[in-house]
Structures are given as structure tokens and as C-alpha cells.
């Protein structure tokens, strides 16, 4: 049993060992699963245990916590039969402990204290009792614990923006504060930052420019990665620059020209892709249709703009969410165009869905298991649409297709939005808040994917990813 | 890490024109606040915020003195001095031009005054500047109340108020001084039409701490900028340009659609200066494109684009009350000295330096010292009562003196039996025996004869006007 508990227990082992050594000189066998309260119990227990075989144990039992009474009763039994050898007594004791430990092990798994509260090495009993006397912070379990972990990882660590170019610092600041939303906007922002980096770059002496430039750019990008702000589209964008295929003997000037040209080419590609998606979308939108869109997507915005200009008339229901104003942005831009719009919050989407002909969702990326990553809330819309038989079209360029595959809402590569609870609610003991930026729409809710190449059925995502065509050469495996 | 992003300029050539009484003989940047020279505060702020080098502008006549004082401070900053001639009587913007001669800077520039004391971290302001892509960011804080007591005659000095016009996102729409207007202040209709709701604040002090975008900096140091004073003329001008028609973000497709939103004034009608400005404020195409696709919009209910389609955006950050001081008037000088004496405030403003109340070189005779700061080598006699005072170094305070709420600079001699309340005694002054001074200001090197009783006066060898 000890072996399986392995790494988790080792720190507690050490503590326990120390405790035991202090109390007496036989310690190594006693490894117990620990929760916070148990730390108070453990040293005392051991102190008692060790004292067990010795007849002169009077003071300890008085101070014990209730849990230990089990042992105490045991001990009184033993007290009677003190003729038993100390070895046998230890034997019985150990068996009892192991039984109790097994029972507690399960509880311990579930109610493991979060790292913040967890580990102050309590060397003395005094220190431990002090801990207990502090106002008890409830232990976070399951979801809450994951959120706390995630929040910590996403937290702004002001370490090491050392060699990072100011343009990247600015980019990161905007992305972190949610002032730069939408993957296309972020890609263009990245390109702008890269352009500044490239223009300011000076190749050091006697170093091959290719390798150094790649490293330099990678260092900037690593700053974004460290903040968990990298997404599929961003990765593809950087790969498309093909920095590592620069010729070895190229001069700094030429290299800059080449890379700048690559940046321009990529921006053009983005714009062209958006136009192609617009064309493909035209097949699906009939005159006079009522469309539903969710939050802001520049891809959809552009497509609808093109459609409107070519004379198609349609009406739009813009569904927005309380926490970010993407919906309002979409609404104001559409109404500027002259499109008839309605605005709803997501909680009313059920009401409007029977009247809607089709739903357009802008995608952040498409996953290898054919589900769509979109702004948080897309899954709800897709679900409601599905239940009412309304087709849902995901609009996504192929450059956003990814090898990852997640189920349901995922934390791994997600970002947290800024907190939305009022300050006085935030500090309540059992409260933790979580507002995720992205959301996964399962494959079964999506009718088709509108890409710049063609309109794909949902299950074709892996085919596109694996296809050897030149466009998809870029789709090497991301992290 | 901040160094590769910002260049810092510290303006220490001010003559302290609003505090002539004490700046006659001493450079403003060396006035003691809490027994540290005034310039120490902005320098230590920069040091703890991670800056590695500073450019300090001083007057040539004060250069040696200031350099010596700064070197004595022992900061890890690399301080580069630039001097300007006092006789030239340059304004702040002109002074900046002189500095800029030494090279073209690619970074954004921070311009700050030597009289700026704050306990706020610059993180928030820098983050604001970065995330909004601001052309200019400024730092404001609530002014000290006008009723603070000031030594010297009670004159009705019309305090020089700044009028700051902000919108709800802390965007800086207009910045003027109350002195520039007679009775009325006018706000352009364009501003109100575009924003709908604006706040005009008159109790905010401008800390003279600006972060300037590189393009704005290039304009300021170029020949096209003919204004002399940064805060008085140049910055208000720049802030006004936010509402020029040339300030539009122009996307390739939407050129034709622009006119529908604005009053139909042609670009040519904009003044020449505006054109000159926008020549420097070049367009960043990709930034515009980013903003076009951006899902975030801080004015979602307006039909304008991000940041209201403005290329140039000026922002303000407002610090909480009591967090900052601008020491350019006698009132603020006295107030900050008072505040700094409290231990918790000292902690805030002078983070790196532990509070040493009474310098150990002062010896230990019987005396009562409360809430005060005493500098090095000051001799304090017996029976002396000191309460809430800042006493400089090398002073001689003889026996039975009572000091309350005073600011005493270096080298002062106070003879026995004197009672000073709320006074400001400048360098090397001499106060005779058994004087009783309330709220007086004693000029440097002046000897106050014994048994003087005075209240709310300036005691000086030179006849100075009481205005």
C-alpha cells in the first residue's frame, strides 16, 4: 500500500517521520493518509502509539481529538493485557491503522486540500494546533480545485518579460485583458508584433541568421505560450512564415524583406479566405432568411456584409451574452449596414429558435474529433438549434483546424475571462468563480462546416488535416 | 526589462516659480522632503519599477549641486545628465528638444517632473498605455484640499487648477488650466456629440507624468512643434487632435462610408498645425486591421468602430486620494512633509528606505521627540520638545526650545527658549533666543533677532512682496 501512495505521500511521510522521531524512536512504519485535520491527530496519535507499549502513558489521551477515541478504547483493552510483548502490541496496532488508513484513503483522494492551504511543514505540535485555530478555509474539491489551478496558471506572472520585444508585451497585455478578441484579430495582431520584431532585429556577429532569427522569434512567442495565449491559428501563422527555410547565407536586409513579404502574403491570405468563406456561405443563405448569429465573429460579419452588398436580403437575430459585448458589436455593425437585426440574450434563444432558418457560429478552431471550439455559449445555441431542427453551420477557415481533440468544456488550452462577481461576493468562503472564454460544440450539433475551400461535412475534419495538398502542409502537429 | 520599452526623462530644471520663497537659494529638485532631496522620490520610484537608466535635465548653474546630491543618494540607476542654459529660459518642450539631439529614439518616452511623489505602482498605467495603444497617457490624482495651512502670510492665492475632461473609459478628452480661461470654459460640440457623456473634473492634479507614444514624441521634438511648454501648450494641443477629422482610422473598404458619420467638413479645413501633427502620427496599417477584426469594442452601442475610430487616443489614470503629491507649491510642499512623518506613509512613499527617525549621530540627551525626523549631525540641547517636525542635518538646537509642526532645513541654528509653531526655516538661518514664531517662513541665511514675536509672516533679509 505504501508503494501505491508513492509520491503523494512522500512529503507527508517525511513530516510523519519527523514527528515520530521526535516523539520516540520507532517511526518508519507509520505512514498515514493525511488530510488537514488529520495532521493534528497524526503526531498525537503517534506519540500515543509510541508510548503504548510503555505503561507510563497518562497525559496523552486527555488531549486527543475524538477520532482517536477508537484507538483509545483499543488501548484500554491493551492496557489490561500488558503482559503481551511489545512486538505483539505493535503488530495489532499496525493492523488497525492499516484498516483505518484504507478507509480514510478514499476520503483523502476526494478532499485533498488545494496547494495554497496544504503545505506548511508543521514541525511541532504547537504549530499544528495553531493552524487548526485559524479560520478554516474550505477545501476545494473537483471542479473548484481545477478552476483554482487554472486561475493560478493563467495568472499574470511578471517574471521574465526580459528579452521580449515591446510589441509582444503589448500584444500579450491586450490579449490577456480581453481587449483583443477573436482569432483572426489575434493573428493579425501577432503579425503586426512580428513585423516590429523583425524590423528591429539585428543579427549578432558571426551567427547564422536563420537559426538566430528563429530562436529570437521563438523566444517572443514563448512569452505568449507561457501565458497560455497561443491558439491553433496563431501557431499556423507563425509556421507559415517559414522562418527556418531562409537560406543560410542570406543577408540581414534580405531576410527582413523576405519575412515581411511572408507576413504580407499571410495577411492577404487571411483576407482572401474571408472572401471565399463569404462566397461559400452564399449557397446556404436564401433570400429572406432569418439567421441567428452568436457574439462577434469577423468572419461572419464580413460574409454577411458581402452577401448584403450582392443584394441578398436577410434578417439577423444577434444573440449576445452578458459577460462580453461581442454581441453588441455585431449588432451595431450589422445595423449600420442596413440589415434588419434583433438582439437577444442567450437565455432567450429558445424563444426565437423556431423562427430561425439557420444558425451561423464563428469558430475559434475545429478539433480533430470534428467538434468546434467557439466563444463560450456556442454549445448552448447549437444544442437548442439542434433540438428544434435548425441547421447549424460552423464558419471556419482551414488554417484553424487542429489536431487536438477535447470533450465537452475543457480547461487544457482554455483561457479565463475576467472575473465578473462583485468584490463582496468574491471573498465568500464557498464561492469560486469561473468564466471561460471558449467552449466546445460537439459534432452532432453541427450540420456542416463552411470553409474557404468548400462546404464540408463535419466528419471531414481529419481528412483535411491529413491531406497532402499544399495548403495543408502547414498543419503539422501542434502541441 | 522596462528599459527596452521606455526611455525616461526627468525634468529637474524647474525654477520652482510657485514657491519662490524657498527656491530662491536652492534648486527645487533638492528641497528636502522627509530629509531626502525631492528628486530622490521619482528616482527611487523608477528604480523600484525596474528602470535602468534615466535622463535628467538640469539647469547649468545648478548642475554641479544636483549631480553631487544625486550621486550621494547611491541609487542603482544610471543617471545621464543633460544641461540647459538658465539664461535661455526654455520651456519644457524646448528642453526636451535639446535632449533629443543626442539621438533618435525608437521607444516610447516617459516624461516626468522631479516633484512627483507617489506610492502607486506604475504597472497599471503602463498596462493601460499598452493595451489601449494610447498616443499619450497621463497620471492624475485628487488635489490636496485648499484649506491646508501654509506658513507665511495668508494670501488669497488663486490656486492654479487643472480642468480635466474625461469620458467613462478614462479617455482624456481635454486638458486645460483654469488660468487660461476668464470666466467660462468652452468644450467643443464635436466631443459631446461623439461621446454623449463627459465628466469635467476640476479637483484633479496633473502629476506631470506622461507616457508618450513614439510618434507623438517625434512630433514634440520636431521643428513643426513650436510650442514651448509641454503641459501648458503642447499636450492640450495633442489631446485636441483626437477630435480632428484627420484622426480617423481609414480602412481600405470603408473610405466612402466615413462621411456619413461626421459633420461634413473637408480635411483641408483643418489647421495647418493639425496637418503637421498627423504627418508624424503615421498610420499603422496592421494595427488598424487588427482593430477592424477585433471582437472587443469599448463603445459597443455606438456605430463607430473600436475606440471610436480614432488613431490617436489619449488616456488618463486616476490614482486614489492621498497616494500622490506634486510638490510645486508651498502648500503641497508643507502637506507632503506632514504626511511623510507618519510611519505608515513613509512606508508607502519611500519603500526602499527604512525610516530612521533620529539620526544616530545626534547623541542622546534628554529631550522629547515625537513623530519627527532629525537629520545627521544635528545637535539637540536639553529640555527640547520636538513634535511632528522635519529637521535637517547639521542643525544646532539649543536648550528649552519647543518646535511643533516645523520644517527646518540644513544648517539652522535655533537659540534657547524659542518656540516655533508651523514654521518653515530655510537653510542656514539663525533664530535668536526666546523668539515666538507662528506660521512663519524664514528665508535662507537670515538671522531672526532675539525675542521676536511673529505670526504668519515671511522673515527675510530681502524685501519680498507678500503676493
Automatic annotation (TrEMBL), chain A:
One of its GO terms (cellular component) is cytosol. Pfam families: IF-2B. InterPro entries: IF-2B-related, IF_2B-like_C, NagB/RpiA_transferase-like. The keyword Transmembrane does not apply. Residues 1-117 are annotated as: Disordered. It comes from the Eukaryota. Keywords: Cytoplasm, Initiation factor, Protein biosynthesis. Residues 26-48, 66-110 have a biased composition (Basic and acidic residues). SUPFAM superfamilies: NagB/RpiA/CoA transferase-like (SSF100950). Component of the translation initiation factor 2B (eIF2B) complex which is a heterodecamer of two sets of five different subunits: alpha, beta, gamma, delta and epsilon. Subunits alpha, beta and delta comprise a regulatory subcomplex and subunits epsilon and gamma comprise a catalytic subcomplex. Within the complex, the hexameric regulatory complex resides at the center, with the two heterodimeric catalytic subcomplexes bound on opposite sides. This is Translation initiation factor eIF2B subunit delta. It comes from Cloeon dipterum.
Amino acid at each position: 500500500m505504501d508503494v501505491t501512495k508513492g509520491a503523494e505521500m512522500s512529503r507527508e511521510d517525511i513530516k510523519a517521520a519527523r514527528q515520530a522521531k521526535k516523539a520516540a524512536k520507532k517511526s518508519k512504519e507509520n505512514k498515514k493518509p493525511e488530510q488537514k485535520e488529520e495532521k493534528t491527530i497524526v503526531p498525537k496519535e503517534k506519540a500515543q502509539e509510541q508510548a503504548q507499549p510503555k505503561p507510563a502513558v497518562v497525559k496523552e489521551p486527555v488531549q486527543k481529538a475524538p477520532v482517536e477515541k477508537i484507538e483509545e478504547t483499543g488501548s484500554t483493552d491493551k492496557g489490561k493485557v500488558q503482559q503481551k510483548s511489545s512486538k505483539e502490541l505493535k503488530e495489532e496496532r499496525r493492523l488497525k491503522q492499516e484498516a483505518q488508513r484504507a478507509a480514510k484513503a478514499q476520503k483523502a483522494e476526494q478532499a485533498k486540500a488545494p496547494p495554497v492551504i496544504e503545505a506548511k511543514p508543521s514541525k511541532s505540535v504547537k504549530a499544528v494546533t495553531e493552524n487548526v485555530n485559524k479560520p478554516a478555509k474550505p477545501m476545494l474539491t473537483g471542479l473548484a480545485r481545477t478552476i483554482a489551478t487554472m486561475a493560478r496558471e493563467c495568472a499574470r506572472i511578471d517574471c521574465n518579460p526580459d528579452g521580449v520585444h515591446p510589441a509582444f508585451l503589448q500584444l500579450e497585455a491586450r490579449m490577456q485583458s480581453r481587449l483583443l478578441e477573436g482569432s483572426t484579430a489575434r493573428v493579425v495582431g501577432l503579425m503586426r508584433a512580428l513585423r516590429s520584431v523583425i524590423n528591429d532585429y539585428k543579427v549578432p556577429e558571426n551567427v547564422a541568421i536563420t537559426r538566430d532569427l528563429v530562436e529570437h522569434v521563438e523566444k517572443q512567442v514563448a512569452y505568449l505560450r507561457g501565458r497560455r495565449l497561443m491558439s491553433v491559428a496563431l501557431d499556423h501563422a507563425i509556421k507559415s512564415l517559414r522562418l527556418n527555410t531562409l537560406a543560410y547565407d542570406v543577408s540581414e536586409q534580405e531576410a527582413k524583406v523576405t519575412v515581411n513579404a511572408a507576413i504580407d502574403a499571410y495577411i492577404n491570405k487571411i483576407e482572401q479566405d474571408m472572401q471565399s468563406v463569404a462566397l461559400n456561405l452564399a449557397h446556404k443563405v436564401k433570400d429572406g432568411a432569418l439567421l441567428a448569429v452568436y457574439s462577434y465573429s469577423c468572419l461572419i460579419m464580413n460574409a454577411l456584409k458581402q452577401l448584403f452588398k450582392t443584394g441578398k436580403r436577410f434578417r439577423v437575430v444577434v444573440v449576445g451574452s452578458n459577460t462580453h459585448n461581442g454581441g453588441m458589436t455585431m449588432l451595431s455593425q450589422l445595423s449600420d449596414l442596413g440589415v434588419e437585426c434583433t438582439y437577444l440574450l442567450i437565455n432567450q434563444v429558445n424563444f426565437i429558435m423556431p423562427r430561425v432558418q439557420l444558425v451561423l457560429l464563428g469558430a475559434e478552431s475545429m478539433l480533430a474529433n470534428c467538434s468546434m471550439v467557439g466563444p463560450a455559449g456556442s454549445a448552448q445555441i447549437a444544442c437548442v438549434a439542434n433540438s428544434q431542427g435548425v441547421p447549424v453551420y460552423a464558419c471556419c477557415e482551414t488554417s484553424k483546424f487542429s489536431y487536438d481533440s477535447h470533450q465537452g468544456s475543457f480547461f487544457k488550452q482554455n483561457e479565463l475571462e475576467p472575473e465578473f462577481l462583485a468584490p463582496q461576493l468574491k471573498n465568500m468562503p464557498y464561492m469560486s468563480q469561473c468564466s471561460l472564454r471558449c467552449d466546445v460544440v460537439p459534432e452532432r450539433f453541427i450540420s456542416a462546416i463552411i470553409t474557404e475551400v468548400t462546404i464540408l461535412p463535419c466528419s471531414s475534419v481529419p481528412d483535411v488535416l491529413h491531406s497532402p495538398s499544399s495548403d495543408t502542409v502547414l498543419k503539422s502537429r501542434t502541441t | 526589462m522596462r528599459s527596452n520599452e521606455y526611455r525616461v526623462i526627468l525634468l529637474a530644471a524647474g525654477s520652482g516659480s510657485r514657491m519662490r520663497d524657498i527656491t530662491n537659494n536652492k534648486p527645487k529638485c533638492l528641497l528636502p522632503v522627509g530629509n531626502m532631496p525631492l528628486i530622490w522620490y521619482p528616482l527611487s520610484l523608477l528604480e523600484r519599477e525596474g528602470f535602468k537608466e534615466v535622463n535628467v535635465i538640469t539647469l547649468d548653474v545648478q548642475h554641479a549641486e544636483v549631480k553631487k546630491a544625486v550621486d550621494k543618494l547611491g541609487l542603482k540607476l544610471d543617471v545621464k545628465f543633460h544641461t540647459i542654459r538658465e539664461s535661455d529660459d526654455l520651456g519644457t518642450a524646448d528642453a526636451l528638444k535639446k535632449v533629443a539631439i543626442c539621438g533618435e529614439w525608437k521607444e516610447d518616452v516617459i516624461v516626468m517632473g522631479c516633484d512627483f511623489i507617489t506610492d502607486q505602482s506604475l504597472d497599471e498605467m503602463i498596462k493601460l498605455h499598452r493595451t489601449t495603444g494610447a498616443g499619450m497617457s497621463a497620471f492624475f490624482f485628487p488635489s490636496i484640499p485648499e484649506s491646508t495651512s501654509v506658513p507665511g502670510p495668508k494670501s488669497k492665492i488663486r490656486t492654479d487648477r487643472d480642468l480635466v475632461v474625461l469620458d467613462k473609459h478614462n479617455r482624456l478628452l481635454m486638458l486645460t488650466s483654469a488660468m487660461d480661461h476668464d470666466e467660462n470654459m468652452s468644450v467643443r460640440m464635436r466631443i459631446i456629440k461623439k461621446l454623449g457623456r463627459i465628466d469635467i473634473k476640476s479637483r484633479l492634479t496633473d502629476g506631470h507624468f506622461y507616457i508618450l507614444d513614439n510618434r507623438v514624441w517625434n512630433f514634440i521634438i520636431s521643428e513643426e512643434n513650436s510650442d514651448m511648454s509641454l503641459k501648458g501648450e503642447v499636450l492640450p494641443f495633442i489631446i485636441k487632435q483626437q477630435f480632428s477629422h484627420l484622426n480617423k482610422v481609414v480602412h481600405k473598404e470603408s473610405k466612402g462610408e466615413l462621411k456619413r458619420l461626421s459633420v461634413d467638413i473637408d480635411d483641408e479645413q483643418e489647421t495647418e498645425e493639425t496637418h503637421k501633427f498627423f504627418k508624424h502620427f503615421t498610420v499603422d496599417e496592421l494595427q488598424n486591421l487588427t482593430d477592424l477584426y477585433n471582437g472587443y469594442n469599448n463603445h459597443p452601442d455606438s456605430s463607430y468602430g473600436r475606440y471610436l475610430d480614432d488613431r490617436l487616443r489619449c488616456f488618463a489614470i486616476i490614482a486614489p486620494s492621498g497616494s500622490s503629491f506634486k510638490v510645486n507649491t508651498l502648500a503641497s510642499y508643507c502637506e507632503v512633509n506632514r504626511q511623510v512623518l507618519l510611519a505608515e506613509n513613509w512606508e508607502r512613499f519611500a519603500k526602499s528606505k527604512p525610516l530612521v527617525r533620529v539620526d544616530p549621530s545626534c547623541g542622546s540627551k534628554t529631550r522629547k521627540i515625537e513623530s519627527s525626523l532629525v537629520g545627521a549631525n544635528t545637535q539637540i540641547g536639553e529640555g527640547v520638545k520636538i513634535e511632528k517636525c522635519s529637521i535637517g542635518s547639521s542643525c544646532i538646537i539649543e536648550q528649552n526650545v519647543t518646535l511643533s509642526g516645523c520644517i527646518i532645513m540644513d544648517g539652522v541654528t535655533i537659540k534657547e527658549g524659542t518656540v516655533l509653531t508651523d514654521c518653515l526655516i530655510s537653510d542656514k538661518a539663525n533664530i535668536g533666543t526666546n523668539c515666538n514664531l507662528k506660521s512663519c517662513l524664514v528665508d535662507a541665511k537670515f538671522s531672526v533677532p532675539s525675542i521676536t514675536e511673529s505670526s504668519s509672516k515671511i522673515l527675510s533679509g530681502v524685501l519680498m512682496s507678500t503676493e
